[in-house]
Amino acid sequence: MPSRSLILGLVALLGTILASCFSNNRHQGEKLYALHCSSCHGEQGQGLARLIPPIAGSDYLVKHRAELACLLRNGQNEAIVVNGIGYHNIMPGNKTMSTAQLTNLLNYIESHWGNKGVPRTILDVQTALDSCRVPQAAEPHHH
Amino acid sequence: MFKRLLLLPTLAATLLTTACTEPPKEAAKLPIMGERDVRPRADGGPADTVFATVPRFRLVNQAGQVITNQTFAGRAYVADFFFATCPGICPKMQGELLKVYTKYAKDPRIVFLSHTIDPAHDTIPVLKDYAQRLGVTDAARWHFATTGAHNEPTAKDTVFQLAKAYFTAALPDKEAPGGFAHNGTFALVDDRGHIRGLYDSLNAQEVARLFVELPILLAEIDARKSGVATK
């Protein structure tokens, strides 16, 4: 039965290709977190004492959900309160991540370490990014 | 083939001689880092070996106290270089040092010293806030120190020089997050100012090695104090 083994082989090949596509994207958020976030916020999103706020079980993610995409892109330079504790460290933004990457990162953060946010679509995140406040420093004032 | 045959007896001989002549195992001892200077003695006796020490420094900590080499004499300390607004490696590095500190928080034989490499921003109140936020309430246990407590114009150069002496690379770099490029080296210094170990704080195995080697140094210092060991 040469044709049967051929089909089986093709199915297996197709499966491998599909699996590799999905697994890459499925873990993109985790990889981006490890690369860009974990050295400050911790491998488990635990933060650092009262210097760096936690992401794990963070009420900030729920209360400020609509602002998070802009916060990741433009950074944070204001005092914030997370789980009742005030923090005032600067968080740098990341201008190089695509909307799809930001979506995967947010979905990873919001579904781990006790966080239970509703998954976002790329369109959700793009809409949020379109309405970001333009950071003051980046606005040139030529008249 | 011929060569290989020759090698075997050589190998056996080497093994035998080293096995027989090796001195009885002493307690493991940490190396002394840095250049050493061999100085012949005027009387023709055996030359003295002078080991590198941390250069003289004068800093001010988060409590506003002046600290110098003398502050650390007779005890071990772990030194590193950071800055309060550092968004790159510092939180990870200080988080790792916090683990070591937590284990030895009440041990008077060892203290901790973090130097800011951004003295213009990290004033005494900033350092104090940083220490408290990290959970360090006693400045004498973990110093967060600056070379620029009095707006010294040379503060940055001074701390960069000092970083070099502790084998830490620290440089201003516009491309780096926060404006400074530096690596997260922990330097373990002994009671006489010799650097006895260097550990990359971003590497879990290196931090584990610090946990292993710190007690070895403390034992050496204990022995020196009780007069058991001469060196």
TrEMBL record, chain A:
InterPro entries: Cyt_c-like_dom, Cyt_c-like_dom_sf, Cytochrome_c-type_DH. Gene3D superfamilies: Cytochrome c-like domain (1.10.760.10). It comes from the Bacteria. It holds the Pfam family Cytochrom_C. Residues 24-113 form the Cytochrome c domain. Keywords: Heme, Iron, Metal-binding. PANTHER family: BLL4482 PROTEIN (PTHR35008:SF4), BLL4482 PROTEIN-RELATED (PTHR35008). This is Cytochrome c domain-containing protein. It comes from Hymenobacter frigidus. The lineage of its organism: Bacteria, Pseudomonadati, Bacteroidota, Cytophagia, Cytophagales.
From TrEMBL, chain B:
InterPro entries: SCO1/SenC, Thioredoxin-like_sf. Residues 1-19 form the signal peptide. Transmembrane segments: none annotated. It holds the Pfam family SCO1-SenC. Keywords: Signal. PROSITE patterns: PROKAR_LIPOPROTEIN. This is SCO family protein. It comes from Hymenobacter frigidus. The lineage of its organism: Bacteria, Pseudomonadati, Bacteroidota, Cytophagia, Cytophagales.
